[in-house]
Amino acid sequence: MNSKLSNASYEEYVKDQLMLLSSNFVVKSYKRANDDDWPVFERGRDVRIQVQWKKDPVYEFVAESSFWHMRNMNKEDRNHMRKWADQKIQMFKNAMKKKK
User: Fold this and answer.
1) How many domains does the chain have?
2) Are the beta carbons of 48 and 41 closer than 8 angstroms?
């Protein structure tokens, strides 16, 4: 997939980029979150995203459901979403380099 031109959603983009790093990554989204752990989470509006490595959770974040699932049809939306996604992808790349 050409990530510069693709109109993939935030979800698709993150999953594709992590899969390129390793097939051990799994990305799951949840419609619920524990109030104690995620006080900013708003049920019905947000999704809790969990990144797993071989079924072990390694990172979680919250995103608006529409932002997570929306396809990015114009250049500005793509750039905005990629800015957020690429920060997370880079974090995983750096962690993998340190592990080696």
Assistant:
1) 1
2) yes
